[in-house]
Amino acid sequence: KVAALTNGKAGIEGQAVDVVAMRNAKPSQVVDVVAAVRAAKANAVTIKTSARDDTTQKMPLTSASNVPDCTVVAWIDKDGWIDVWPAGGGAVRRVKRGLAGPDMTLGMDAVRTQWAGCNAPTIAVGADDAMTWGLVFDLATSALQAPGSRANMATLLTSAVPGKKLVLP
C-alpha cells in the first residue's frame, strides 16, 4: 500500500525523507515502509519515533546492501531476549528478559563489548514481530547515542539467525 502511494512522487525522489513510526507498530511494518520510501528513490531515510521519555527522537538509516563482518548485530527475539553478535557470524551474547521486557542496560553492555576492535559505522538491529517497534528503536538509539559509540547509522533487519553471518536483502 505504501509503495503505491510513494512510487514516482516528486517530493520523494532524490530527497531526504523522515518517516514517523508509532512505538506499537510491528518492526516488519516499519521496515516495509522504509523499503517503499527507498524504492521511491529517496536518497536518505530517518525514522522519528517517540522515545520512552515522550520526546521525539531520530534514527538515521543506511541503505547499504552489506556491512563489515565486525558490525554489531542486535536482535530481540520473541521472548524478549536480546542477542548480540558480529555480522560475520560468531559467538552470541544472550541477554535475558528483564521484568518489563528486554533488558536494555545489559543489552547495551553486550553491544559495547562487541564493538571492541571494530570501527564499523553501522549497527544492525531488529526484532521478532512479537515485539514492538518501540523496543527496536530504544535499543538502536541507545547504541547510536552511547558515549564512545562507533555507529552513526542503523540497518534495520526483519530476520536474523543469532551467531550466523548476517544476510541483508
Compose a concise summary of this entry.
By secondary structure, the chain is α/β, with parallel strands linked by helices. It has 4 helices and 10 strands; from the N terminus they run H-E-H-E-E-E-E-E-E-E-H-E-H-E.
Topology diagram in text:
Blueprint: H1 2-6, E1 16-20, H2 27-39, E2 44-50, E3 56-61, E4 72-76, E5 82-86, E6 93-95, E7 97-98, E8 101-102, H3 104-115, E9 122-127, H4 133-145, E10 153-157
Helix pairs in contact: 3-4
Folded structure, characterized:
The chain has 169 residues and is of the alpha/beta class. It contains four helices and ten strands. The protein has a five-stranded mixed sheet with strand order 6-5-4-9-10, covered by helices on one side. Helix 3 packs across helix 4. The two termini are 20 Å apart. The model has no long low-confidence stretch (mean pLDDT 90).
Radius of gyration: 15 Å
- Biggest β-sheet: strands ordered side by side in the sheet: 6-5-4-9-10
Question: Would you count the extended β strands for me?
Answer: 10
Q: How many separate helices? A: 4
Give unreliable regions as ranges. none
Straight-line distance between termini: 20 Å
Helix/strand order = HEHEEEEEEEHEHE
The main β sheet shows up as: 5 strands, mixed
Could you say which overall geometry the principal axes of the C-alpha atoms support? Answer: globular
Q: What helical percentage do the residues reach? A: 25-40%
Q: What fraction of residues sit in β-strands?
A: 25-35%
